Structures are given as structure tokens and as C-alpha cells.
Amino acid sequence: MLIRYKKTYEKIAMGLLSFMPNEKNVKSLVNTIKDYETKDDNHLFLWKLDDIVGIIGIQILPDKVIMIKHLSVNPSFRNQGIATSLYDAIRSQYTDYTIVTTQEVASFIEHCHVSLKVL
């Protein structure tokens, strides 16, 4: 189930984001979380089964474009379709939008058998 990020999930979100290559140091993670908390065009969502096991961060761009900036799944839950479920949930929430991704997320998205334009 897709849930919107709130401050109470900060440590869990930082833990999931830390699995991303460019989010390894604490300063970077703190800045990333701050961006999602303060910028109106950035949105962070978590995927909850019994526990929170995945995260997806998006930025809403002009002309009805959404860029997936972050996508991560707890290693213990990988290869179970969670990243695809995260993508599908965003796709269903933003039906009128074109979805693109960053280079950092592109290979993970491709692993989910989804083809997106890379910005």
C-alpha cells in the first residue's frame, strides 16, 4: 500500500534512501529529506506491507511531467515486485502525466520492465 511520507517516517525513509548510490552520506540524506519536506513540487511515498519496505520520490515538473528521483526497496524484499508496485501506484495516481526518470534510477526502473525517458 502506498502511503505519503510524514516526518514520523524520517528515519525509515533515510534508511531506504541510503540504499541509493548517491545517497550514501548522512549530509546528502538530510538534504534530500529536507527537499521532500519543504519543496511543494517534491513528493515522497512509502510502500507498506506489514512494515515499510520501499520508497519512491517524485518531482512534478511543468507540462504535466513527473520525474522519479528516488526509488529504493529494502534488500530483504527485492525481486518481489515492490518497485513495480511503487511505479504502478504513482502511475495510477497521476494518470494525466508523463513519467520520466533520472539516470540514477533508470537501471532500476528497467529491471522492473518499465521503459521511461531519462532526463
Polypeptide structure, described:
- The chain is globular, with a radius of gyration of 13 Å.
- It starts with a strand and ends with a strand.
- Strand 2 and strand 3 form a beta hairpin.
- Helix content is 35%, strand content 29%.
- The mean pLDDT is 91.
- The chain is an alpha/beta fold.
- It has a single domain, classed as Gcn5-related N-acetyltransferase (GNAT) (Aminopeptidase).
- The protein has four helices and six strands, in the order βααβββαβαβ.
- This is N-acetyltransferase domain-containing protein.
- It comes from Gottfriedia luciferensis.
- Pfam families: Acetyltransf_1.
Provide a brief overview of the structure.
The protein has 119 residues and is of the alpha/beta class. Helix content is 35%, strand content 29%.
Indicate the topology.
Elements: E1 2-4, H1 10-17, H2 26-38, E2 42-48, E3 52-61, E4 65-73, H3 82-93, E5 98-101, H4 103-111, E6 117-118
Parallel strand pairs: 4-5, 5-6
Antiparallel strand pairs: 1-2, 2-3, 3-4
Organism: Gottfriedia luciferensis
Pfam family, one: Acetyltransf_1
Domain N-acetyltransferase: 31-92
What key phrases describe this protein's structure?
alpha/beta; 119 residues; Aminopeptidase; single chain; six-stranded mixed β-sheet; 6 strands
